[in-house]
Amino acid sequence: METYTYQMKTGIVRTREFERKCLATHGVNVGLKCGHECTYCSTPVMIRAHKAFKQLGLSAFTTGYAVIDPDTPSRVAHDAKHIKSRGIVQLCAISDAWSPEAQEHNLGRKCLEAILSEQGWVVRILTKNAAVEKDFDIISKHRDSVLLGLSITATPGKAGIISITEPYASSITERLRVMQKAKAQGLRTYAMLCPLLPGIADSPAQIDELVRTAVDFSAEEIFAEAVNPRGRGLILTQQALEKTGCHNEAKAVEAIRSQTIWSEYVAKLIKKLQQSVRKYSDIKKLRFLLYPKELEVRDLEVVKQDDAGVVWL
Questions:
Q1: Lower CB count within 10 Å: N or C terminus of the chain?
Q2: In terms of residue numbers, what domain contains 49?
Q3: Is residue 137 domain-resident?
Q4: Tens of pLDDT along 49-67?
Q5: pLDDT bracket for residue 152 (50, 70, 90)
Q6: Strands 219-224, 188-193: parallel, antiparallel or unpaired by DSSP?
């Protein structure tokens, strides 16, 4: 994995999109491309026109490299002190502050320290890396002001398959271990079940197990989302699964490349999550993030009939 550094301009930024998602009022990014290399990642679509890629002579869609800014914590510290209207900061919005290349510069820890050194801020951590455990000392010190979430994208029984689609992230088993440790230490947690890929994490039994797991580590909220069909993520995921002999799972991903089947998959996923959360938790805790423009009319109507827990975007 090649790592490039690029001087960014922002620290803590107000983000209306994350506010709409009920995640945060502000966001921080420690880079542009994350070294976890999740095959389904849709971020390159959003950042493809960023001038950094032209300056580096690279494409946002190319794999095998990461882009970070080691100076991010200094800008975050400045903004944490000077922004008057404070709220929840998502760490991070695009890249992962505990990805391998970010760890080399302790970006997650430094950003946490910078934000939490000022009164009035709450940090929502979202990562796929168990390395965040190393910073439990800071989180424990500010336990009321930190929400911890390690993205759980499948049950432990599918950990091997997920290691194909999330090659450089921590294993599902490791992520779950860290979430359980957080609960044991009395830290605030939330669940991020995203994305729930077809053929891997979308069956009723798998969703029930994921929801029960979220309840077990005392998740304050249960966020969930279907895989984003934009960009080449579905193609890359299908290819990676086929290459490693996971043909049934590859076919399931290939199927939702059809707009009609993707729409049906989303509508069914919502219903399964609603049923499971109602059975094992509280439907008020569900936050299913949904962009309705992508749905077929018939599936949209089905969702509207019972949209408990749906966050319309």
A1: C
A2: 1-127
A3: no
A4: 999 999 999 999 999 999 9
A5: very high
A6: parallel
